[in-house]
Amino acid sequence: LDQQAIQAVKELLSTPKNILLTTHRSPDGDAIGSSVGMYRVLKKLGHTVNMVVPDPTPDYLKWMENTDELVVYSTSPERVAQLLDEAEVLFSLDYNAYHRMGKGLDELAANAEVTRVLIDHHQQPDAIFDIAFSDTTACSTAQMVYEFWDAVGELDQFDAGIANALYCGIMTDTGSFRFPSTTSYTHRVIADLIDRGAENVQVHQAIYDNNSFTRLKLMGYTLSNKLEVIEEYNVAILSLTQAELNEFNYKKGDTEGFVNQALSIGGVRVAIFIKESDGIVKMSLRSKGDFSVNQMARDHFNGGGHINAAGGASGLNMEDTIAKVRSVLPQYKAALTS
Ligand SMILES: [Mn+2]
């Protein structure tokens, strides 16, 4: 991490501050894990701390400490505006541009009179931050939060609640330590988190052995009826309409991981999951090896992310989105079939 930025943050946190922690829309394990990890350390250091999420935390993450204290912008916009008004320091965790928090909250954040601190691993951070920790090689923001407190010299503040939260962030963003971003350093961080109280078995169970019956039925339906492999390009496509989601009593988070099932097919380089939800067609893109779905999402689907994992939205309906995916594949034929 940038030593100058570490010095600046040490100076900033040397007196008690009113701190607001924020993360991206549709928060995942890394977003919530990083928030909870930061929250608990900062509280122990004597700061006034609040956590804001743009929309509700999915149920599968609610076992984490302090998740009942997350203030949800979509249900409590006035409370969030008040917190932003009172805050002296605004942390952006696991996202690097305010528009990732969605409409309304992005403007509130941009207009707040605060010191802006970034801890994030996504590509191309906005230039709005006063103190920025941006590392696109990091497997997760949670790993960067560990690195941050190590550099600040406060790892001794870590307890089981912090260790579990950061363990969850690293585990979920690395697909359980299997994506290329997983390094020996990641494993050293994980080992230290276990030494500091992370309950690795329980965290795995809480995330992966916690399916609802309807989610498994939806997964079965999707894999049986809505999975298509375009062999010419080594691409797999999955799709679900709002009507299909309704039929299976869809709850937020239920389709988490579906795209990885498609990517697990031997020979498939790219998997794309297209989901219609709240009138918007959203996409999750995943790849194996060095094919950049970040680039594909940026080029064609108003999105982005990482080399092997990205998101986007087409602005079209389901049928046209699938047609658009098919129409852009020839541009990538060399990279998809080499
Ligand atoms: Mn992340």
Structural overview:
The protein has 338 residues and is an alpha/beta fold. The chain contains 14 helices and 12 strands. The chain has helices at 3-12, 29-44, 77-86, 105-111, 141-152, 160-173, 184-195, 200-208, 213-225, 242-247, 258-263, 293-300, 318-328, 333-337, and strands at residues 18-23, 48-53, 71-72, 89-93, 115-120, 131-134, 227-230, 235-240, 270-277, 280-287, 304-305, 309-313. A 6-stranded parallel sheet has the order 3-2-1-4-5-6, sandwiched between helices. A 6-stranded mixed sheet has the order 7-8-9-10-12-11. Strand 4, helix 4 (105-111) and strand 5 form a beta-alpha-beta unit. The protein is globular and about 60 Å long. The chain starts with a helix and ends with a helix. The relative contact order is 0.10. The mean pLDDT is 96. Bound molecules: manganese (II) ion. Manganese (II) ion binds at residues 30, 94, 121, 140-141, 173.
**Secondary-structure element string:** HEHEEHEHEEHHHHHEEHHEEHEEHH
Helical/strand content category: alpha/beta
Number of helices: 14
Query: If you average the pLDDT, what whole number results?
Result: 96
Ligands, ions, cofactors? manganese (II) ion
Beta strands, count:
12
Distance between the termini: 36 Å
Shape: globular
Helix content: 40-55%
Strand fraction: 15-25%
Oligomeric state of this protein:
single chain
Order of strands across the main sheet: 3-2-1-4-5-6
What does the largest sheet look like? 6 strands, parallel
